[in-house]
Amino acid sequence: GEVCTMINKKYSEFLPSMQSAEELVSQVDGLSSNIDLLRAGIENEVQRDLNVAVAEFTELKQQLERDTLVLSILKKLQEFDTAIKEYNTALLEKKYVAAAQQLEKARRSLKMLESRKGFELKILKALGTELTVQTQNVLYHLGEEWQKLVVWKLPPSKESTSLESVTHSELHLRTAPSKEEEIAGPPVAAVLQAFAVLGELHTKLKFFGQLLLKYILKPLISYPPLQPFTEEQSDVFILRFKSEEPNLDHSSPMEVFGKIKLVFEVLHKYLLNVPLEQPTEDKKESRVILAELLGDMIWEELSDCLIQNCLVNSIPTNSSKLEQYIEVIKSTEEFEKALKNMQFLKGDTTDLLKYARNVNSHFANKKCQDVIVAARNLMTSEIHNTVKITPDSCVALPRPPDPGADHLKMKKTSQLLRNDVVNLENETKLSRYTFSLPTCRISSSVEKLMELAYQTLLEATASTDQCCIQLFYSVRNIFQLFYDVVPTYHKENLQKLPQLAAIHHNNCMYIAHHLLTLGHQFRYRLTNILCDGAATFVDLVPGFRRLGMECFLAQMRVQKGEILERLSSARNFSNMDDEENYCAANKAIRQVLHQLKRLGKVWQDVLPVNVYCKAMGTLLNTALTEIVTRIAALEDISAEDADRLYSLCRTMVEEGPQVFTPLPEEDKNKKYQEEVPVYVRKWMTFRELMIILQANLQEIVDQWADGKGPLAAEFSAAEVKSLIRALFQNTERRAAALAKIK
């Protein structure tokens, strides 16, 4: 029973808690289904309403943006319209600056409108056109005003800027408005300011600058007689020219600077001295200095013109005048300073001043150029005007300066140094003829060239270091130029005319001779400056000797060719018993002698005697060798042939030496004619040939003398045998004779 009650008790306690749990479950179930309903409600309705609201909001926002944009565009259109209206009013009242500013405003509005992407209005194109038309319109009016303010009176022919036509150019600058106009015309400042606002100032000034250069500034530099003068009237300032007789070909830089300065002063006072504002991109106004603007445009061309046509001519040509050049430098400095004060120039030393200050270098350049031009003129002048030089000839050589003395103060005494005595280190005297030149003729132009070289080196020793170096090298250039120019320039004549070839040969030898000692006389001054004794010309000597030799040898080849050509018509000297053959051979020999005689004449007194004798000897030798070769080659010589050949040879031996006439005095040539065997290698061979032509067999054998006689000295055994076979018929005596020749 106890157990029963206990269970009941537990059960009675358990039941209510179970009931409450069941209630809780059913409550939760109810709540859950409510939530489901609510979620369904939210998902179906509230969400939809929210989406609608957001969409509406966005649409409204876009609407607002569109309206704002349209409003700003309408505003800009209105601004454009107002600006154009105000511009028109200002233009009517000739308030050009205001008009220009309104146009710029309109331009800015239009720029804004055009920058709106996705909003291309048809109207914009029309507005752009309107703006362009109005800009051209105001520029036209401004141009008209400008032309009243700045009036050019130019010569009728646009092309010419001759002195005559330039004299009629005038520039009128308006200083006050003219009385006739109802409304006073706008002042210069307003017109220029309006141009500045419209961005046209540069173009206007550039055109003005070009006219200024062409009709005023450049003519003042180029024509010394031209003087500017000014005239002031009540409302206009006039700049015009008058032409005066010049006292020099070139005005001094001082005069030119004075004239140019006057022009700039006038422009500064009456035209350019107005303050202007130039609108820039970043809205800040910036000051514009008109003078500086114009200066920038024309200064380079102006300073070039001043350098080329004024300063270049003022560079002195000899060192003594260099000191006076300080004046030019000073006046160049003052000129630049004046232009700076008027604000035409900004910044420091310009090219003009640099040029003037660099006078030493220009002096050297000019000097070198003059030297080279003079040298070139001498080289291209005629070769055949000659002077005679002898071992005793003098060249005016400067005295070498004392190594210790002050070079620049040294008195340039010139001492005549004998051509053949060179004081080496002032104590050792070389033999009188060590450096002597043989008597001969050279072109007078080459003598002058040598004098030019000496004078230039003398000038170099008295110059500044830089100039000294330049002058030394320009003297070297003279000789290199000679080396290059003369053979080419005179090429044809040197080939055609034997006399010129001889003179050219002498010229080269004369130059080579002087180049040996040329650096030596100036060594004290030059060696200090040029490194390690570079002050020499010795390296050029071999080239000149070769040049002279080659030219003369080429001429010799031509002459040899002619001799052989003439002898080729002698029919090999065969069958002289035939009259026609004999005549041909005789004629050939006469022609050769004639050619040699003519050469002997044209080289007479021109070539040094030893060269003359060698040259004539070589050519006569060519003729004799050819004759010997031809005769020795004959296979059959009849007795009559032999006699005729002998008489032809005798003509050569008798008349050949007479072509040696190296000197104009006849009696002095005997000595050289007697020495012909010395200069003609085959002379004895020729004489031996003549003996053979006249001798009998025994005499020939005697002349041979077992290979020890005079005949054996000139001919080989084979040649002698061949001659014997040609001259004598085949007999036992001939066979015996032939046996002895071996």
TrEMBL record:
Keywords in alphabetical order, please: Acetylation, Cell cycle, Cell division, Centromere, Chromosome, Coiled coil, Cytoplasm, Cytoskeleton, Endoplasmic reticulum, ER-Golgi transport, Kinetochore, Membrane, Mitosis, Phosphoprotein, Protein transport, Transport
Tagged with keyword Nucleus = no
Q: Where is the Centromere/kinetochore protein zw10 C-terminal domain?
A: 435-565
The keyword GTP-binding is annotated on this UniProt entry: no
ZW10 C-terminal helical domain: from which residue to which, for each copy? 587-741
One cellular component term (GO) for this entry is: spindle
This protein's membrane topology, according to the annotation, is: Peripheral membrane protein
Its annotated compartments are:
Chromosome, Centromere, Kinetochore; Cytoplasm, Cytoskeleton, Spindle; Endoplasmic reticulum membrane
Which PANTHER family does this chain map to?
CENTROMERE/KINETOCHORE PROTEIN ZW10 (PTHR12205), CENTROMERE_KINETOCHORE PROTEIN ZW10 HOMOLOG (PTHR12205:SF0)
- Supply the name of the protein: Centromere/kinetochore protein zw10 homolog
Q: Which organism is it from?
A: Trogon melanurus (Black-tailed trogon)
List the gene name. Answer: Zw10
